[in-house]
């Protein structure tokens, strides 16, 4: 039986980098069925909506979604519901992709690209697990009104609702404890229990779930402190679990510690291990179409797809090994290039990974 | 007429570091009236509440509050309303201290203490302006209930309300534009307008207020991107304004970039320039009572107090110059000590600043 992959390249460099990931997958000699669709700004241009019904249906019917990137300055003035980012939020919500895996790995060859000292980041390998379908991203009610109370009662105000239910916290906690068990047996849960009701509850529930994982060491930390520890000593952290809003901020901060965000993949999974796989970086409209974008984050996202959604861990290993070989051989796209290495374009980088497989 | 200062040393190292700041103020030969009171854990032990009525009254009647730090592990199991941090939140709310100034300065002598490369942080001097009395910190309603709707309707849930009224955004925007005007004429406003109603409104109102400051260059950035830019190239930023929650995270991240958080003061002001001044670091119960805490952040907070609340800019300059002289002379408390400098304790550091005045 072949594996059904929905391919959603999106905007900007999305098409170029997804093309290379597809070539790598095709070189594996596994039975894939790829079906491509428009998403983001490209879908808005063609169909008037960033996540057309047909694209959503395709994603829902697939075993996994390979996603490029969405967004461009030119859509900034559209009303919110039509902007490219809504496609990502819609896919997360409709596919119930509640578990977002964001590895932050600093490859030895690329340590110099980091703004941090080499001894602080070399060998960094941490995993941020971000809850992705709850929190203030989706909480109702939200909107504008006149302030019902407070020092400025009657003034125009805008508001949002942060919320988490017990089952939402439980399921992400289980995912995180299991991931920690497979790694260093340590889990850091990040919250703001000293201020927020939602995150005092988060801390309570994570602590309860911990009883089922006595072999994992659990630590709690406030989000402001976590933002500091990431800068100060990121290698002390291993698996970090947190809510949607804090996870958005911390996973990007962690990615930037490596200095090579063009290398970082991500996975977003639901309870049936259906997943959406995308690079951690954005659509980079400024370099789109120039053939210089780094396809490695997308290629490594395809590897995560094989491992998490398609039960093809060996094939995932092969891709990851090939990427490491290409780095070791000195090939670099411009974003990670440094003196003494060979500058290549998107296509040439893809070729090299295929050759190294 | 003498200037009335409420002195609230608090817990942990609070008493030691505030004592040195007081000695520095006393050496200035200005007419101060100091009145001391308990706050935080110390107040809870003595009066059963972290912010007793008498302490709040004293703070309200003063021209400024000099605050040490609060908190200790041993209060972690108290119900939230009685924990030391509630004293800070209560003071902010009752005194309406809406404008929080958090400078992140990397002193040339201390560049090596940073986990970032010297060329990335040397000479760093940025100012984060955090709104401090609104947002999800104080928004009502909040609490626990059974989920009224959503995929887990009926399940236990906790929730909080994020909200900002137009006048709240306007007043912090004015403070920020005015601060930017006195510096490099550049303001970065950080939001999450792509996801949150509250911060789309924030962006709209800040943009409107900008019309009154055509000489200041305004840029908007999403909070996840801001967390990255702080790590990547912090010197490109100058004045950053944001809400209470994002400000909590970004100001601590920015502070840690310097590697010497023991040096960083803060000011929290209301519309009448009444203010609360405290170091950016915490109560460090692990080193309390040992005479090794760094008093410089508190001493520099006293300087900010002179400048912002007491209209004594010359005296503020004198303190800041004295601190720089002491650093240049090679004196270091253990937290900022490095090979080739002289290690001193809290008291000796205070002595040195007084001598340098
Ligand atoms: C585009 C935006 C809605 C999204 C988010 O905030 O989740 C992005 O920042 C991300 O992290 O995937
Ligand atoms: C102690 C806590 C309530 C407080 C906050 O979150 O504001 C602290 O982190 C700060 O930044 O002053």
UniProtKB/TrEMBL annotation, chains A, B:
One of its GO terms (cellular component) is cytosol. Its EC number is 1.1.1.85. NAD(+) binds at residues 282-294. GO terms for molecular function: 3-isopropylmalate dehydrogenase activity; magnesium ion binding; NAD binding. Residues 4-353 form the Isopropylmalate dehydrogenase-like domain. It is found in: Cytoplasm. It holds the Pfam family Iso_dh. Its main location: cytoplasm. The record marks 137, 192 as: Important for catalysis. Keywords: Amino-acid biosynthesis, Branched-chain amino acid biosynthesis, Cytoplasm, Leucine biosynthesis, Magnesium, Manganese, Metal-binding, NAD, Oxidoreductase. One of its GO terms (biological process) is L-leucine biosynthetic process. It comes from the Bacteria. It catalyses: (2R,3S)-3-isopropylmalate + NAD(+) = 4-methyl-2-oxopentanoate + CO2 + NADH. Binds 1 Mg(2+) or Mn(2+) ion per subunit. Substrate binds at residues 92, 102, 130, 224. The keyword Oxidoreductase applies. Its cofactor is Mn(2+); Mg(2+). Pathway: Amino-acid biosynthesis; L-leucine biosynthesis; L-leucine from 3-methyl-2-oxobutanoate: step 3/4. Homodimer. Catalyzes the oxidation of 3-carboxy-2-hydroxy-4-methylpentanoate (3-isopropylmalate) to 3-carboxy-4-methyl-2-oxopentanoate. The product decarboxylates to 4-methyl-2 oxopentanoate. This is 3-isopropylmalate dehydrogenase. It comes from Piscinibacter sakaiensis.
């Amino acid at each position: 039986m072949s594996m059904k992959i929905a391919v959603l390249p999106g905007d900007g460099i999305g098409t170029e980098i997804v093309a290379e990931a597809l070539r790598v997958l095709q070189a594996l000699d596994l039975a894939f069925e790829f079906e491509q669709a428009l998403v983001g700004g490209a879908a808005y241009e063609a169909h008037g909506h960033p996540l057309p019904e047909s694209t959503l249906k395709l994603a829902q019917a697939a075993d996994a979604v390979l996603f490029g990137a969405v967004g461009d300055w030119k859509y900034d003035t559209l009303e919110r519901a039509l902007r490219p980012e809504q496609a990502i939020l819609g896919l997360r919500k409709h596919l119930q992709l509640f578990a977002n895996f964001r590895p932050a790995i600093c490859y030895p060859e690329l340590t110099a690209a980091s703004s941090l000292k080499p001894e602080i980041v070399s060998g960094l390998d941490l995993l941020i697990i971000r809850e992705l379908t709850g929190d203030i991203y989706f909480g109702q009610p939200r909107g504008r009104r006149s302030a019902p109370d407070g020092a400025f009662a009657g003034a125009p105000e805008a508001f949002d609702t942060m919320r988490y239910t017990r089952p939402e916290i439980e399921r992400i906690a289980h995912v995180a404890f299991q991931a920690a068990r497979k790694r260093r047996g340590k889990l850091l849960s990040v919250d703001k229990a000293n201020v927020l009701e939602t995150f005092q509850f988060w801390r309570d529930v994570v602590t309860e779930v911990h009883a089922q994982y006595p072999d994992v060491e659990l630590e709690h930390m406030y989000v402001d402190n976590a933002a500091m520890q990431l800068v100060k000593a990121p290698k002390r952290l291993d698996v970090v679990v947190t809510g949607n809003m804090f996870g958005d901020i911390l996973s990007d901060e962690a990615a930037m510690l490596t200095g090579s965000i063009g290398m970082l993949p991500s996975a977003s999974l639901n309870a049936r291990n259906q997943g959406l796989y995308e690079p951690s970086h954005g659509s980079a409209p400024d370099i789109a179409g120039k053939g210089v974008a780094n396809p490695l984050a997308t290629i490594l996202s395809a590897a995560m797809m094989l491992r998490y959604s398609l039960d093809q861990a060996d094939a995932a290993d092969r891709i990851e090994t090939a990427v490491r070989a290409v780095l070791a051989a000195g090939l670099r796209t411009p974003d990670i290039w440094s003196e003494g290495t060979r500058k290549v374009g998107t296509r040439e980088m893809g070729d090299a990974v295929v050759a190294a497989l």
